[in-house]
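Good day; I would like, with your permission, to put a structural problem before you. I would ask you to consider whether the tokens describe a fold that such a sequence might reasonably adopt. The full record is reproduced below for your convenience:
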Amino acid sequence: MDITVLNQQFGLGPALRFSEDASGLRLAEIENPLACARLCLQGAQLLTWRPRTSSIPVVWLSDAVKLSPGKSGHSGVPICWPWFGNHASESAYPAHGFARTSDWEIIESSLDSTGATHITLRLLASNQWQENWPHSATLELSLIIGETLKMALTTSNTGNEAFVITEALHTYFQVGDIERARVTGLAAVTFADKVQNYARGVQQADLSFTGEFDRVYLDTESVCVIEDPVLRRRIHVNKSGSRSTVVWTPWQEKGDKMGDLGVEGWRHLLCVESANAMENDVTVPAGGTHTLAVEYRSEAM
């Protein structure tokens, strides 16, 4: 569907309009009384979100990220599906699945009485899907972009046999300085530490950061809060349909090697990902559905 048709069928004036960047990727720009945001239809990747109550985005977009066909940038909210991390048996398959680099279509858009913008997208069938994951399913992402950001990722099994997925909303949050940020809500939760070859441990206190950090917290449905004294705000991460929380920051050495985080970008990002990972995988029965949903809210400290 070209840009003209997208705007005719789903455009909502300034509250939702579509454009195309230099690489040919289609973008949705959202400007409503409550928030502004940008979305890339490739990967259904929300690139940034800023409520009007804040002068600084809550969902982080690197100023050095370069969007291109078939590639997902380190920014916004990449979608990991139908597996999180590396494929369990096929090393050549893409990390975090194929949803984040595949084309999606807009299937619905509207404004509600509060002024929030509603968008629903569906993952398009592809050869990669058939080759990498031969199951019959639909995947939809619904967003409500307003004073809070709500996202719901729904997997529907349209086949005759159950299948298993792992998944995540790999959200990059903007922080003033990672060395001063804290995360609450995960004390006493068991984790697998990727930096330490997935060694298991139990979180003894709230999280703070002094180096590369990459942990999968298991069997937790807790609300997490990012406390940011530099930007003087708290970001609440509320979730449902998720039994894992992934916390990641690359730190300087790894961040500088990524190439699209920008100068000192590693210092201003923190990923708190709502997920179903490792042993928290999800079985979706034939004819059944599963929804992973989040709501992000920012408040002043």
